[in-house]
Amino acid sequence: MAVCGACRNALFGPFFRAEEASVTGLYFDKPTPTEPATVELEYCRNCGLIRQPPERMIQLNYERIVRGTSQQLPPYAGDILSSLAQFGVRSDDFILEIGANDGTFLKELRAQGYRNLLGVEPSGQLADTATQSGFDILGSYFDEKLAANIRRQHGGARAVICRHTLEHVPDIAGFTKAIADVLAADGVALIEVPDADWLVTHLFAYEIWDEHISYFRPRSLAALLGNSGLKAVRLERMRLRDTRNLVSWSVPASASAAAPCPAEDEAGLSELEGFQARWDGFAERLRAVVQASPKPVIAIGAAHNQLNFLNFTALAGAVDMLVDDDAAKAGRFAPLAKAVPIRSTSDVLASVRQGTLLRTGFPYPAWEDRIERALGAYNVRSIKPYDLV
Question: Which of 241, 282, 333, 385 has the smallest count of CB within 10 Å of its CB?
């Protein structure tokens, strides 16, 4: 068994498994079958890192990913920019962003007055978009070899920004070692990842995503950084809609100015061990309610987390339609256990007069509330799944 990439421990236990899960993130103009997959995670019995088993790891080609992040900038982005100044990063200092995507955060840095910017982004289309906005982008995956090349050409980075990239990386130890290698002696690295404690304590299995290879909590993230030549000096939990992120600031291990931050997890290892049983019990109660409810069943949302919710509760075959206003989805079909049509809010509100509305894992309650109120006027029943936890 491969050792833990964070703490080097070799003992793992089962965390979560969902068999025959349909593909998420794909939408078709007509009903189209896809090959179901098994989603499986295990946890480190020492530091609590949650990961895909290396021998069954799902690896994607990010050179072809085209999802931009221009609509996903968190409300605390200003806090990140302020922290850069607090760490002494000046406007002409070299700043490297790993996983620059379409240049969304580079634009925030430039607007703040930072001028010496370099991005790394493997997606050709997203790298081109960022380049068209005037940024210098390396179209590549980030690793120790690229870090050495960057350091030779640009010198050590005064700041490294890595937001929502680490959880996608197969070799987390090599990746963070490369961050330490490219960082200047007085540099600071920001690493932002989803907070897996939030997933565990709130029973949010729908946040499990095939693109996420590792799931971090404070202790495992601090262990990873410490074993990579970095020292975590600040760690904050930041809310984003109905989820939460970890925002970690670290400096080279040789730096003596700052003391390491405490690494405290909210969920114990016993909660990781029991996560599957708690989810299965919740899913069984929810299935019983849905199966006894009037048809058709209309589920809100057709993005990854909503489709994952339906997959992991084994309700994918019980849903008759999905509601989503994204122009890339509305009017198309989602490949669940059966092909399910995706309809816009206006279409659903104009035509549905009976059935059951299922509120899935969605971070926009005001929108859900509006749909529920409108359909409630026709006695369409509404199910709030987490009332059954």
Answer: 241
* Residue 42, CA distances (Å) to 49, 62, 195, 254, 274 in order: 8, 24, 16, 33, 12
In order, the DSSP letters of 92-118 are TS-EEEES-TTSHHHHHHHHTT---EE
Amino acid at 86: Q
Q: Which amino acid is at 123?
A: S
85 CB neighbour count, 10 Å cutoff: 13
Question: 235 with 83: CB under 8 angstroms?
Answer: no
Length of the chain: 389
pLDDT in tens, 161-176: 999 999 999 999 999 9
At 263, the amino acid letter reads: A
Give 335's strand partners: 339
Residue type, 19: E
Distance CA 275, CA 281 (A): 10
User: What radius of gyration do the chain's Cα atoms show?
Assistant: 22
pTM here is 0.92
User: 3-class DSSP state for residue 216?
Assistant: strand
Strand order from edge to edge, sheet including 381-383: 333-335, 339-343, 321-323, 297-300, 356-358, 381-383
